[in-house]
Amino acid sequence: MTVGRGGTLIGTLLRAHVDRTQAYAAVAALRPRFDPRAVRAGDRVSLQLDGNTRSGRHRLRSLHLATRRHQEVTVVAREDGSFGFGTPSPERERAARSFVVQSRSGTITDDLSTALAAGALPRPVIDEVVAAFAYAPDMPIGPAPGSLYTVVFETPVSAGGTARLRYASLQNQGEEYRVYRYPLKGGNVAFVEPSGRGVVPLHLDPPIPDAEVTSPWGWRIHPVLGVLKFHNGIDFGVPTGTPVRASADGVVERSGWRGNYGRYLLLRHSERVETAYAHLSRFARSVRCGNHVRRGEIIGYAGRSGLATGPHLYYEVLIDRQQVDPGREDLVLPIQLAGQSLSHFQSYIEQVASSTAAR
Known about the structure:
Layout: H1 9-15, H2 20-30, E1 44-52, E2 58-66, E3 72-77, E4 83-85, H3 90-97, E5 99-107, H4 112-118, H5 123-135, E6 148-156, E7 164-172, E8 175-183, E9 189-192, E10 197-201, E11 212-215, E12 218-221, E13 228-231, E14 234-237, E15 243-245, E16 250-257, E17 263-268, E18 273-283, E19 292-293, E20 298-302, E21 313-319, E22 322-324, E23 332-336, H6 339-357
Antiparallel strand pairs: 1-2, 2-3, 3-4, 5-6, 6-7, 7-8, 8-9, 9-10, 10-23, 11-14, 12-13, 14-21, 15-20, 16-17, 16-19, 17-18, 18-20, 18-21, 21-22
Helix pairs in contact: 1-2, 4-5
């Protein structure tokens, strides 16, 4: 963040929703080497934040002050809650200090992606804006020509980083729509509207990369029973013994024989997301109920156990215990923030607004 005109160091920390007690303790810890009253407009403050305190404000891990007079000082939180001079970890320091905030505005004359490209936005930001607008529940499917967009994003200062969206807004036929890129615990990212309604894109890897889908999701004549049945997953046509990999990190919730499914494996990836793998010839040795598996780890081998006409893998994706089409590239998990989660998100909106105004 940048100290604004007439701003103070403590005011800058509180504007970032840092826990009040920690903010005063960190500023006090600077005094042996730097007088906090000497900060000036344009001085930069880098904060490392980790979760929230009981007050609902952000927990401060480190504070780095870089003045326009080429002074630099860092204080880091100790285990007892006090602050002392030190250096934050290189990874966290780079994450906190390696970007600047920018914004672009423009008019949509053809389609959104073309308009964003004409606005000279970085490609990763364009992709996130298009995804955010496509996923947002209340966003119009196709913005009308003449609609105005505004995009606020972070650009890394040093080479090697990736620009990323902060928020995007769209003025379409007299209505304004806004969606935020909101980091969640565990590393996931959500696209959320100010009301707290949004989605979390699901990034699931295929269980068998580059395998042919021999039977997609949907209605079909069952190849064995010969009757019309809905296919709640997809089939990958592969030889017996082909390795099957976990689509994401998860926990083995069920492994064993399950009727027509044959050898069946169910992985839980979160409270709401599961994947299932059926007709396996055998399980991997490490697969036991309760065991953790990593994305891409071999969990079994394709086969034709159960009711099957030939070797293949049957694969399901379940959200809230309901099967969804695994073949869709835009699989998302709907969310509605409420209570404390909504309060944290509203604080995040305020933080984004204040840091954008201070750039």
